[in-house]
Q: What sequence folds into this?
């Protein structure tokens, strides 16, 4: 077999092995890209400030050599003041990159994992001044999750309006957040998304417990999925946050979804058009 | 309220440019992911994740990517290899066709050889670009290509003999 014939055979074999991407992949990418601005460029230090910082470091070094520790303390005091000045100078640019959260559902900046645990760890691990009579350390009291991501909040979020039918629902895991999406054939109806401390939901008076240690209740008003909804009514993806999503009830114009979460985490509920979707991102 | 609320004047052309470039390379990228992972659903997830990752880096590069194709395929290939290591994906016959067909001959090749052969022959990338995409040496690309060709040909001949 000649090289050309062999190459043709190989091409055919790979063509048979692979297939073109589904159109849904392109849609999925577009959705994600439009809902996720790229990370802001790193802010370059203004040249004058850079020179000043460098000069201060040299000054501290020289002082350390000739004057001893007292001079270093003086230099560090000046340095702290300068750091404050630099931080104030850069603050407007940073806040412009991370807009404040509004209660209405609006797509916003990239959710990036925030070092919440790292920030709180030193406080709980700090040694006490003197040993006490109690041998066992007292665990820190449970704290409510802190909304550290732009656009994310732990408070109830509402939005939408109008009347619509629910066509499908899906879940996805992204870098920094898990996503729960409900798609509608009309406009996104009025919704309320509420965080709760358990994964138990009321299903017609009967409690239903989903997987996970916390939950998100998604209530849609003036909505229905009867006869139209083609998506799954119960999924257990075992993502970092979303453990389960279940259609709890659908009747009398009100649809209720329960989302079982691994932990109580802040979220961001917003809508996307074409097709209309309610998107709930849960910080991971 | 919708997609456009998220756009800023600066981002609109940048995103449009990025999406246009991605659309032009999506098919080979997805096929490359399928060749590495041998699982169409996993390949779709990998390409999706790789595209988001690429978009994050794209702005920091200010769109100044010498070869978008090489750069993007490198991100996809790297992500797929990492996924493969994590999940230890195995060949799913239902996904890649019947045992004994020519496609099974390429699917049965070791992943490094298979990927190199795909990039070299199916995508038609030159050796140096394949080396960059797969983050390996030029020498290794050449040797893998030769070995993979030989192995593929041997498997085909073996099957023909069996059929006879």
A:
């Amino acid at each position: 077999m000649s090289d050309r014939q062999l190459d043709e055979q190989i091409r055919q074999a790979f063509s048979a092995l692979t297939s073109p991407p589904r159109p849904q992949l392109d849609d999925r990418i577009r959705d994600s890209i439009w809902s996720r601005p790229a990370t802001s460029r790193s802010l370059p230090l203004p040249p004058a400030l850079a020179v000043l910082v460098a000069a201060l470091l040299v000054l501290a070094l020289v002082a350390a050599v000739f004057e001893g520790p007292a001079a270093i303390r003086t230099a560090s005091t000046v340095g702290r003041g300068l750091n404050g000045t630099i931080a104030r100078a850069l603050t407007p640019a940073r806040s412009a990159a991370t807009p404040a959260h509004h209660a209405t559902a609006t797509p916003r900046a990239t959710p990036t994992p925030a070092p919440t645990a790292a920030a709180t760890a030193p406080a709980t691990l700090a040694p006490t001044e003197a040993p006490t009579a109690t041998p066992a350390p007292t665990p820190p009291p449970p704290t409510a999750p802190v909304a550290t991501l732009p656009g994310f909040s732990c408070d109830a979020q509402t939005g939408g309006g109008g009347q619509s039918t629910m066509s499908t629902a899906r879940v996805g895991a992204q870098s920094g957040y898990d996503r729960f999406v409900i798609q509608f054939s009309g406009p996104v109806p009025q919704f309320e998304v509420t965080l709760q401390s358990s994964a138990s939901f009321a299903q017609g008076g009967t409690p239903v417990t989903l997987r996970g240690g916390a939950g998100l209740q998604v209530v849609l008003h003036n909505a229905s999925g009867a006869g139209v909804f083609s998506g799954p009514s119960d999924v257990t993806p075992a993502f970092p946050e979303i453990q389960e999503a279940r259609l709890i009830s659908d009747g009398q114009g009100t649809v209720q979804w329960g989302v079982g979460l691994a932990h109580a985490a802040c979220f961001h509920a917003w809508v996307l058009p074409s097709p209309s979707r309610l998107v709930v991102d849960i910080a991971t | 309220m919708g997609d456009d609320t998220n756009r800023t004047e600066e981002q609109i052309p940048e995103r449009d440019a990025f999406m246009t470039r991605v659309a032009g390379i999506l098919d080979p990228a997805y096929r490359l992911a399928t060749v590495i992972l041998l699982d169409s659903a996993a390949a779709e997830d990998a390409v999706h994740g790789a595209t988001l990752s690429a978009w994050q880096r794209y702005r920091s590069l200010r769109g100044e990517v010498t070869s978008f194709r090489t750069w993007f395929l490198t991100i996809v290939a790297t992500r797929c290899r990492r996924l493969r290591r994590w999940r230890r994906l195995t060949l799913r016959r239902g996904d890649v066709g019947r045992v004994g067909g020519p496609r099974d001959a390429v699917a049965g090749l070791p992943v490094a050889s298979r990927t190199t052969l795909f990039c070299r022959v199916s995508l038609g990338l030159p050796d140096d670009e394949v080396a960059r995409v797969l983050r390996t040496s030029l020498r290794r690309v050449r040797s893998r290509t030769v070995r993979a060709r030989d192995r593929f040909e041997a498997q085909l001949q073996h099957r023909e003999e069996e059929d006879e």
Observations:
- DSSP finds five helices and 13 strands in chain A.
- The CA atoms of residues 121 and 150 of chain A lie 22 Å apart.
- The first strand of chain A starts at residue 157 and ends at 159.
- The interface with chain B takes residues 1, 6-7, 9-22, 25-26, 28-30, 32-42, 104-108, 110, 174-175, 271-274 of chain A (CB under 8 Å).
